[in-house]
Amino acid sequence: MNALVRNVGAAIGAQVSGTILAGSVVAGSELPAASGFTSAFAVAAGVAVAGAGLAVLVPARGRASGDPSPASVTLAGETDPAQA
């Protein structure tokens, strides 16, 4: 599911960037103006900041009821203080 959403986002991002660049083509030229690249990068940066902001709002994933907490896991060679 993660890969699907990532691919859809990449496709939409490419289309938006292409649309911005196509709209900035100078009359009589086949190339977009430099301001078109600046606008496309500014839009991409804005979407990235918005995505980072939304990612901060996503709650942390909880542990399943049977999973030990990281504090209660003993590593190899260590003794468990609760059993000592």
What's the main sheet like? Answer: none
Radius of gyration: 24 Å
Poorly predicted segments: none
Query: What general outline do the C-alpha atoms trace?
Result: rod-shaped
Averaged pLDDT: 85
Strand content: under 5%
Q: Structural class, from secondary structure content?
A: mainly alpha
What letter string, H or E per element, gives the SSE order?
A: HH
What this model shows, in words?
With 84 residues, this protein is mainly α. It has a domain at 29-55. It is 55% helix and 0% strand. It has two helices and no strands. The chain has helices at 2-23, 34-57. The radius of gyration is 24 Å and the shape is rod-shaped. The two termini are 45 Å apart.
Protein traits:
single chain, rod-shaped, mainly alpha, 84 residues
List the SSEs and their pairings:
Layout lengths: L1 H22 L10 H24 L27
Helix pairs in contact: 1-2
Summarize this structure briefly:
This protein has 84 residues and is mainly alpha-helical. It has helices at 2-23, 34-57.
